[in-house]
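Can you give me the bound-state structure? Components:
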Amino acid sequence: DQQVKQNSPSLSVQEGRISILNCDYTNSMFDYFLWYKKYPAEGPTFLISISSIKDKNEDGRFTVFLNKSAKHLSLHIVPSQPGDSAVYFCAATYDRDDKIIFGKGTRLHILP
Amino acid sequence: EPEVTQTPSHQVTQMGQEVILRCVPISNHLYFYWYRQILGQKVEFLVSFYNNEISEKSEIFDDQFSVERPDGSNFTLKIRSTKLEDSAMYFCASKGVYGYTFGSGTRLTVV
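Here's the bound-state model for the whole set.
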């Protein structure tokens, strides 16, 4: 049962352009959403999050948008940099103290 | 910056053998977790641990799995009799005021 879905296994974006990673979820009880970034041979590292009561959260080059009616969120990275090449996991929780439910991840390649 | 440390980074074991994966969480964290990622699949929750007991476990975490915090610093995951399908990256995490911190993972290969 995939409660958090990332339908694009990979994405290639030119350096300097905008990267948009998408995520859909099925459980309307989720109240907190997170994006994690993962490099090879490392654990997931927290990138940015958004509460279900908001529709946008911005942190530097990273912005997460939440559309609750569509059960959809997206991560925008602008401008994309070579160091952004990694696997990005969309994740959700029922509350901030609960386990994290991850999507399968999207591998982002930033092209020179 | 505080880290969650996992050892070993790679463990190869024969099917049916017991393995113990070790983790040193961040010292002032109170919540501890194990997750795993089978190659090509999503990161999956296994178990959460708080106040010296399991607070939640997934259906993956059957009787072959156990966790322990033997000495107040280490947090271990034991698999009693490994199966081929236990081959995965196992991530330990601990949680404090500012959220989760994951370790770098242990790659378990069962042959």
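A couple of observations. Chain A touches chain B through 20 residues (CB under 8 Å). Chain A has no helices and eleven strands.
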